[in-house]
Structures are given as C-alpha cells and as structure tokens.
Design a protein that fits this description.
Length: 138
C-alpha cells in the first residue's frame, strides 16, 4: 500500500469516526485533542480527561453520561497506559469502551504520529500533498 492509498484509508476511518461520534462520546487526553478533532469535523460529545480529577472519578463521571465511549488516547507509551487504565476503570463502572478507532488511526498514519492533537495538522498537510479538497469538506 502506498502513501496515498494509506491516506485515503485514514480519511475513511475519520469519516467513520465522525459518524460514530454523532451517537457515541469520544474520550481524549486533553483540550488540544478536542480542538484537533473539531478541526476534523467531529461535532459530537468529546470528553477531555485532564481535568485534575483521579481517573476512577473521571470514569464514574463518564458512566453517569454514557453507556459506551470511544477511547482515543495518544499512541505513545503514556497514552497506551492511560488507555489500559481507563478501559479498566470504565468497565468497573459498566461502560463499554471502543478502542478500534485508536488502532485504525494509528495503523494508517505515516510517519507515525504520537498524539491526537497532531492529527488535524497531519491530515491538512496530506490533503495539500495529494492535492485534495479542504479539511472542512471531508
């Protein structure tokens, strides 16, 4: 698979994520991640984690709002640890967590990004590189 085909698949994943976010909240690490996803056209509920509360309290708060969430933590070691801990805390509170989008996005990003906040910039650069429509038109 060449870079352009990989990028096309990334755009497909982002469109699926946008649709899924219409019904299912996305949990991210911080405000910059929220901003990046907004630039990519996601308009649904996005929950930033870094609010100063302990992780289990955050999981309880999420459980009061939703039965299912999409986990989209960063792709570095810290993000993986947070993903695992949060998934466990959410399950203990009866919340189903979906990590498929996180895995799919990581798979189609070249060169590999380490964080969600860089995703919108990466997409914009590749739209220009491959002479595609504007980010807002995705």
């Amino acid at each position: 698979m060449d870079d352009e085909e990989r990028f096309d698949r990334l755009l497909d994943v982002l469109l699926e994520l946008r649709e899924a976010n219409e019904e299912t909240p996305i949990v991210v690490e911080g405000a910059r991640d929220v901003a990046s996803l907004r630039l990519l056209g996601l308009a649904g509920h996005i929950i930033p984690l870094h609010s100063g509360e302990p992780l289990f309290q955050v999981a309880e708060s999420i459980a009061a709002q939703a039965d299912e969430v999409i986990l989209l933590t960063d792709w570095d070691a810290k993000g993986q640890t947070l993903f695992d801990s949060l998934r466990t805390a959410l399950a203990a509170n009866g919340v189903k967590s979906d990590g498929k989008f996180r895995d799919d996005l990581r798979h189609h990003i070249r060169p590999t990004l380490k964080d969600v906040e860089s995703l919108a910039g990466y997409v914009q650069r590749n739209l220009e590189r491959f002479h595609r429509k504007d980010l807002a038109d995705l």
